[in-house]
Amino acid sequence: MNQAARSVVLHGLVIALLVAMFFVLPEYHSGNLARILVLAVFAMGYNVLFGYTGLLSLGHALFFASGMYGLGLSIQFLSASPMLAIVIGLITAVVVSGVIGFLALRTTGVAFMIVTLMFAQAGFLTVLFFGKYTRGDEGFVIQRAQRILFGVDLSQPLPRYFAALILFAICLCLIAWMVHSRFGKTLVAIRENEERARMLGYDIQRHKLMAVIISGTMSGAAGAAYALLFGYAGASFAAVQYSILPLLYVLLGGAGTTIGPLIGTVFMFYLIDISSEYTDAYLLIAGLALILLTLFAPHGIAGILRKKLAWLP
Amino acid sequence: MSIISTHGLSKHYSGLRAVNNVDFDLPDGQVRALIGPNGAGKTTFVGMLSGRIKSSAGSVSFLNTDVTDMPAHKRMSMGMAYTFQITSVFANLSVHENVALAARRAIKGAPSVVNNKVMSVLEQVYLADRTDQIAGDLSYGHQRLLEIGMGLAQSPRLFILDEPTQGLSASEVDGFIELVRVLSKDTTILLIEHNMDVVMRTAHYITVLNFGEILAEGTPAEIRSDTDVQTAYLGTT
């Protein structure tokens, strides 16, 4: 089997497995899985920039929140239909990531981390500043009646799960395709040796900007989906914690792999879920897991799998 | 016709004149060697030709276009290729992918077209039996050859090689000389080189830089007999 056929089979199997999961898992866990799928989309978006392009952003909460508030506020104040609100959420994410990318890519390395972090903090403070509309930390609920897309009530477990899965599947296919495209291979070249890639004649800045926009838009799509499927938008999703989480998901699952973000999100989600039953210091356990991982499996779970199966995309 | 030329090209680093007022002209089809003692400004000079280093004054013209303010990647896509003085390959990627990255930028064709180009290039640089090896695992000499292959895959009009034989074994150097002879049929070559044997055996014409200025230019025979060059660089044996 060639690389492309393997990729189709692998990703097809992952999606088929996720379809089956809904019917196999008890309701509590399938509900979790819907949330995980949306967060995995966020992680996949993050992975485009971090895993494939080698740019470490600490500001992806801003992109997530752009999609979330683009959708949420347009439903709340413009009475937009869910479809229109999704489009507005995506456009918001495209614009925000385009502007942030244009500005932040003037820096590299640590400075890039700091600049993205600061932009995201500015975004968070903006959400608080306009508390009259955003309701700040408290957030606002998107009513059930406003979450009916094409006649399907997204507040119900089954439609909600499959809406999340459809979004996830679209993003997974896009990334699987990107990895094999010229564009994706060029991103990897930039990650591996930027100066060499430049001296082969590639426009590094343009590729990086495209990567930020794709990454930011995918993260924004996750934010919009989160608000729509779970009916809530709040400032905590714009806080620094939501910039760190996708980094953790990707590190745990395996940076620069197509299925790593999903694996990482599942593990981190349940690690926090289970450990929070026993202790309030659940973030300590998450942190410990991450330290162990960095020490013993720096390429994440999918990275370990790839050692056994070199063809893993 | 000249492939590349400079007029008054200079690079000053806060008072230090690394390259000063260089007028240089490289005709189509020539193999030109650029020699000079360490610190003569050779790498800075080709850095300005390729666009890696911004010039302080003067102009660069490539294929009759003023490229002085053009970023490096655009010059490359116009038909330049550049190999680094310190080997620079994609160490974690396969040999095939290294060359494919170079070929893909230059060839806008289907994957099979790119693949054919990659295989023919790897044949040329004696790496055809190592396509799937990770580039970082190659020996130093093979990495140098790989980098030359990455240049070739772009089918450049001008190929700039910065000390390509540094660190190669005697037999690898012979292979390199043979390669330059073959390449020179299709492309113009600018070679920075310390190994005088390589220079004398490959170059049609030589430019000698010293203290950032052109000390002499001429055929290998002329340069060998030039007393200024002998004093500055070759020694007076």
Description of the structure:
- The complex is a heterodimer of chains A (313) and B (237).
- Chain A is mainly alpha-helical and 313 residues long.
- Chain A has one domain (3-240).
- Chain A is built from 14 helices and four strands.
- In chain A, strands 1-4 form a two-stranded antiparallel ribbon. Chain A has a two-stranded antiparallel sheet with strand order 2-3.
- In chain A, α2 (27-52) packs across α12, α3 packs across α10 (204-230) and α12 crosses α13 (282-296).
- The radius of gyration of chain A is 19 Å and the shape is globular.
- The mean pLDDT of chain A is 89.
- By secondary structure, chain B is α/β, with parallel strands linked by helices.
- Chain B has a single domain, classed as 3-Layer(aba) Sandwich (Rossmann fold), CATH 3.40.50.
- Chain B contains nine helices and ten strands.
- Chain B has helices spanning 42-50, 72-79, 95-106, 111-124, 140-152, 170-183, 196-202, 220-225, 227-234, and strands at 2-13, 16-27, 31-35, 57-62, 65-66, 80-83, 158-162, 188-192, 205-210, 213-218.
- In chain B, the strands form two sheets. A six-stranded mixed sheet of chain B has the order 6-7-8-3-9-10, with helices on both faces.
- In chain B, β1 (2-13) and β2 (16-27) form a beta hairpin.
- In chain B, α3 (95-106) crosses α4 (111-124) and α3 packs parallel to α5 (140-152).
- Chain B is globular and about 50 Å long.
- The mean pLDDT of chain B is 89.
- Classes of the chains: A mainly alpha (313), B alpha/beta (237).
- The A-B interface holds A 182, 185-186, 188-189, 192-193, 195-204 and B 50, 52, 72-77, 82, 84, 88-93, 97, 100-102, 104-106, 150, 154.
